[in-house]
Amino acid sequence: MKKTTLILLVATLAAACKNDVEKSSFNQAIPLEVSAKDNAVSAAAAETVYDTRTIDFTRPNGGYPLSYWTADFGNDNAANSGSSSLSTAEIGRLYTESNTLRVKLLADKIGDDGGMWSNATIGRSTTKKVLQYDVKFGYVTVPFVWSWGGKIPGLGGGATYTGCVITTDGNGWTSRVMWKTDDAGKPYLMPYVYYVDKPNTCGDDFGAKYYGGDGTGLKPGKWYRVRMEVTINTATNTNGILKITISENNSGTWSTPQTLINKTNIRYATTTAGREIDELITGVYRGGSTTDWAAPVDDFVFLDNILLSN
Description:
mainly beta, Jelly Rolls, eleven-stranded antiparallel beta sheet, globular
């Protein structure tokens, strides 16, 4: 059931959400939380929902428990779904390394069995949100096994459709980024979007591909900066916007962003409940739904400098 975001109100809890040791086990009033760095717009189930947020993972090297997650992201979507979006096994695959978040991808596994599938509820918008983050695949000295590809973060709203479902009811949408390999084995980034009019069973990539600044394919150990801007369509109109740009870090200097996609005629959703942006989709995993997407070795994907803005 979709939650109702409480803006500038004090939330009184009726009960604790299950399976989350960070939540209170008794009724209490949760005040609006505002810091100098971030603007918190609501609170539920002993968690905070951020309208804007900056996360730089400045922590000592070591494990990244659920308490770190909720401190950084504000929540783990438990208020929305009834339980944490992260399992104990998934938490065990998260690690802070050199002030970045390292996600371990297990050999011969896909989806949340081998990486992490996670969401964070964010301040509801019916107009626009911008998500920016840095991502790195493996280490320079250790080749990353790209396999067929996988998912990295994005935004969503309403029913947040994924998993190759039908979206024609107009009750929700998602926009993420994937890494994939072409027939020659060259890795690239592409959009992966669920919206009302998507032409295929699974997400739409609009034929957009980013092969890196030199066009030869993504490089292991290189940082890429993804910036995603989503503007929701009005009513049932085809006037939603999706703009994604990507830049790369070359010896400490960020390149000029290249436009991966700039669509101005997307119909994300058609219902009132669907025409909203209220989820930060933070999942990192291989897949695809079949084991062909798996890799024979453990690998790592790194995230840093997550920036959520309006």
